[in-house]
Amino acid sequence: AQKVTQAQTEISVVEKEDVTLDCVYETRDTTYYLFWYKQPPSGELVFLIRRNSFDEQNEISGRYSWNFQKSTSSFNFTITASQVVDSAVYFCALINGGSQGNLIFGKGTKLSVKP
Amino acid sequence: EPEVTQTPSHQVTQMGQEVILRCVPISNHLYFYWYRQILGQKVEFLVSFYNNEISEKSEIFDDQFSVERPDGSNFTLKIRSTKLEDSAMYFCASKNRGRGPNTEAFFGQGTRLTVV
User: Fold this and answer.
1) b vs e for A52-73, b when ≥16 Cβ sit within 10 Å of the residue's Cβ?
2) What was the pLDDT predicted at B96?
3) Which residue has the higher pLDDT, A1 or B105?
4) Measuring CA to CA, how many Å separate B76 from each of A102, B65, B69?
């Protein structure tokens, strides 16, 4: 079965705090792709990052960083020094290597950053 | 920067009516998708479309739904007889390859469908 679990439904932090959003995935495929998307209050889905299953190198992009660990089937997302504009729903998603590229989404984590 | 465009942004329809949601994918993309997000819930895959035919569909995508790429630029989702539970945000997405290194899907801004 293919599945993405985001156990944290809602997180609330105060501006400048660091926050980590958890993502655990399940797949039978040895080749797969993991994604994070951001959905701000305006509703659109904004691509943040893609990670291939054969590339476990962690990535940092400004205040964002991602920790991919195949041993625990996790792909966690950390925002450093959070800002009010980071308030959004964040979705983790999976594409299996054998599919036509359709994304399997987690339920999302709603992040609220308070000033 | 190229983007996926969806129209209308909001559609209100009576139960039982047919609706057509329209999308213009990014011009050099080959794979097209529709996803649905019921308010406050996760984004769910409906259908993928490649080479002028459906390549994969979910169990949500029943006989009430159909997709079409009528003119090489538009990609439409038709719901024949809408039900209250069809109320959701519908997202169109496109990508230039189904899988492989360049596999991020670019999403449109969504069409909010309200069935009354």
Assistant:
1) bbeeeeeeeeeebbbbbeeeee
2) 85
3) B105
4) 17, 10, 6
- B98/B103 Cα distance (integer angstroms): 6
Tokens of A26: 């399940």
Q: Which residues contact A80 (CB under 8 A, 6 or more apart)?
A: A18, A63, A64, A65
Q: What angle do CA B31, A92, A18 make, to 5 degrees?
A: 140
**b/e sequence A17-44, b meaning 16+ C-beta within 10 Å:** eebebbbbbebeeeebbbbbbbbeeeeb
Mutate to test the interface with A, among B6, B10, B30, B43 (most CBs of A within 10 A): B43
Torsion-angle region of A53 (φ positive above 0: left; ψ -120 to 50: alpha; else: beta): alpha
Task: Tell me the pLDDT band of B98, cut-offs 50, 70 and 90.
Answer: low
Tokens, residue B48: 């993928």
Which amino acid, residue A61?
S
What amino acid is encoded at A49 in this protein?
A: I
Which residues of chain B have a Cβ shorter than 8 Å from any chain A Cβ? 31, 33, 35, 41-45, 48, 50, 55-56, 58, 89, 91, 93, 95, 97-99, 101, 103-110, 112
Question: What would the mean pLDDT of A39-67 be, rounded to a whole number?
Answer: 89
